[in-house]
TrEMBL record:
CDD domains: VOC_like (cd07262)
The species this protein was found in: Tsuneonella litorea
Protein name: VOC family protein
PROSITE patterns according to UniProt: VOC
Pfam families: Glyoxalase
Residues of the VOC domain: 1-121
Lineage per the UniProt record: Bacteria, Pseudomonadati, Pseudomonadota, Alphaproteobacteria, Sphingomonadales
Signal peptide per UniProt: none
PANTHER family: GLYOXALASE FAMILY PROTEIN (AFU_ORTHOLOGUE AFUA_5G14830) (PTHR35006:SF2)
């Protein structure tokens, strides 16, 4: 399965502030940092997220159709993550709400334009 996802940035400090805030709400911090990449998560835990300038030296751009989904604990945390994203330079792509079939999500973009969502799925028994 997925070990980590890496997203490109054109402003490392701005991006780090954004992901420090989001990942802090999810209960994880930076697990790796060097001159090229910052990664958030827990070694041996679920999938992590990394932020880096592109290795080819060209500007970072977003992938059309690419999205990173952050699993929340409940609907309240989905709303908090969405609010944190917007408060830290993110932009709205769809306010938190019921998307049907027990899927509750809020959509946003990071300061570089990468699309993310925060979501929670209802359990089969409720």
């Amino acid at each position: 399965m997925i070990g980590y996802v890496t997203l490109g940035t054109n402003d490392r400090d701005r991006g780090a502030k954004f992901y420090d805030a989001l990942c802090g709400e999810l209960g994880v911090g930076r697990m790796m940092e060097n001159e090229q990449v910052i990664a958030w998560g827990e070694p041996g835990g679920g999938a992590g997220i990394g932020l880096t300038a592109p290795h080819d030296g060209n500007p970072a751009t977003v992938g059309n159709g690419v999205m990173v989904a952050l699993q929340a604990n409940d609907e309240a945390q989905v709303r908090r993550l969405y609010d944190i994203a917007l408060a830290n330079g993110g932009t709205d792509e769809g306010a938190p709400g019921d998307r049907g079939g027990g899927f509750y999500a809020g959509y946003f973009r990071d300061p570089d334009g990468n699309k993310l969502n925060a979501f929670v799925m209802a359990t089969p028994d409720g």
